[in-house]
Amino acid sequence: MTAKTKPNAKPGKREVLAQALMEGCPLDQLAARFVAAGYSEKAASYEAARAMKDPLFAAGKRLGNQVKKRDWTLDIYRRLRRSEAGDATEIPVVDTIDPEEFFAKYYHRNMPVKLTGLVDHWPAMEKWSLDFLAGKMGSTMIELQGQRQSRADYEIASNELKRNVTFADFVAALRRTDSSNDFYITANNDTVNKQALAPLWDDVGEISLLKPTGANDGFFWMGPKGTITPFHHDLTNNLLLQIVGRKRVTMIAPYDSAWMRNHKHCYSQWTSPDELAMLGEQAPKLWECDLGPGEALFLPVGWWHYVVGLDLTIGMSFINFRADNDFYTGYLTETDF
Ligand SMILES: O=C(O)CCC(=O)C(=O)O
């Protein structure tokens, strides 16, 4: 028996309505949607009128309008920020910032800033190299993200890509690799690595903006040139610190979130800043920052970021600021959008 398919079958009525709701179609254009989907003018007017009386459709429509209202409010921030910063895309840089200035001008205003002079006193800045780390930690089992190239959604699937290797094997792989996004020690490997790499914290000092908790604060990052952390936003404020090598960070403000194709949790469907830039006039503003050894980037909560390793990199990130940083308690429980 051969399956019968109806050529040019028009979508069902509820499908047309669902699509119209998802796309924010105004009520006076609803009938036209049915016509475009292949319904007669008469049937289209009838279905549009019927939808207005359907409580489910009405609730969906109100919800859609609420989202549009929120987007309008966010657009106020976008326009005001653009008036303030113009077309400049560089993240401001401040050397040896005073904590009071940091919290007043950046943290509490949800504005990114690149900071220099925060960690010049750290022994790690002088000591950490492949030779030193292999010598000190070589036989230690650590966890990393492996086989990332096997899946397009490697960041979303990060729990499934956890692999255990000795630090010596990891360093050997780094030495063999010119450029790769296939393996990377990230903050998602923190539970294992905080214990395993505890001796490294001897080389880590204090940072004036953070409150020491006495528990080896910070997340360890290390990987070859070519690592890519795709667009996402964090649920906390975050300080991203470079110790060895350079990273390029592209950021997009939370008020531009409507452009971010945020389909799941904190992730975006855009695969690179270049794709976004191709939107031309429509593109949200892409803020840029290159981060070198000894430099730190304040990544404010909610800001989208995309990070590329320009060299073999070693870094750390921190969330233990001397201020409220619990933005995850009220986070959504359902995160498919
Ligand atoms: O350094 C990286 O590759 C990513 C850092 C990051 O995205 C983060 O800490 O949220």
From TrEMBL:
In this chain the JmjC domain maps to: 178-335
Please name the InterPro entries in this protein's record: Cupin_8, JmjC_dom
**PROSITE patterns assigned:** JMJC
Pfam families, per database record: Cupin_8 (PF13621)
Which spans are transmembrane here?
A: none
What PANTHER family does UniProt report for this protein, alphabetically? HYPOXIA-INDUCIBLE FACTOR 1 ALPHA INHIBITOR-RELATED, HYPOXIA-INDUCIBLE FACTOR 1-ALPHA INHIBITOR
Q: Could you identify this protein by its name?
A: Cupin-like domain-containing protein
Native organism is Parasphingorhabdus marina DSM 22363
